[in-house]
Amino acid sequence: MWPRLFLSRYPGPRRVLYFSIAASAGASAVLVVWTLLLARAIDIGFLRETSVTALFAILGALLLVRGALLWIAERLAQSSSSRLRSEARSDLVDSVIRSGPATIGNERVGEIGSVIGGGIDSLDRYVSAFLPAIALAGMVPIAIFALVAILDPWTALILLFTGPMLIALLAVIGGRTRALAQHRFDELGWLSAFYLDMIRGLPTLKAFGRAHDGADSIEVASKRFGETTMDVLRTAFQTSLVIEWAATAATALVAVQVSFRMIDG
């Protein structure tokens, strides 16, 4: 099931997550206001040589407000994740119990155990970090772009060029990362089932003198899972590199055009 459809089955944790996203959006709005006031303080303090004590007091208060909002957002996101995992695990266990031994006997018990344990736990970062981040990624940049377009249209044109380029690059890398992560999760389920089947068959392997073959099979499967994990991490690091590169390029372009405009007066 698609994770967002899965999340829609649990309205309680979903509402808590919405409050977390709202708190994070509020923290982003406070940061924008703080940046504008900082620019105002620099203008007044250095160019007009006027006292900025009151402005710095406001800036300090805004930092405290932002810190409080971020703390609230983090706590709410963790609460949402914890409640969701608890309810999902309870529902899954109830489903297994209702199915009965006859149905479960046709399934790989190790794979079911992997889903109930590690599979449910893997939702933690998805709910507490990824979903809030993707929601903010759709709201905050648009709001900032609209503000920049009002204050400085030339800078907005540069952002209009670099923004879609960054999104396109991240979409390509993100698609590959998702495919690799799904492959790794499938291998984790298979590996759990394989280990359990191997333990169950250990007496038989020993009886026929093939215990060493089982150990070799476990070693090969473990190495393959490690290689899959490294592929996921390698692709994730590429995503970070692309973000850093695009942010640096956009900042440099904005700085260059602002410098030329300041030189021209």
Describe this structure in words.
By secondary structure, the chain is an all-alpha fold. It folds into two domains: 1-151, no CATH class; 155-265. The chain contains eight helices and no strands. The protein has helices spanning 3-7, 11-47, 53-104, 109-121, 123-151, 153-200, 202-207, 211-264. The longest helix is centred in the last third of the chain and has 54 residues, at 211-264.
In brief:
The chain has 265 residues and is mainly α. Helix content is 92%, strand content 0%.
Key descriptive features of the protein:
single chain, 265 residues, mainly alpha, 2 domains
Estimate the mean pLDDT confidence.
78
Number of domain units: 2
Main beta sheet, described?
A: none
- Return the string of H and E elements: HHHHHHHH
Please write out the topology.
Layout (H helix, E strand, L loop, with lengths): L2 H5 L3 H37 L5 H52 L4 H13 L1 H29 L1 H48 L1 H6 L3 H54 L1
Helix pairs in contact: 2-3, 2-5, 3-4, 3-5, 4-6, 5-6, 6-8
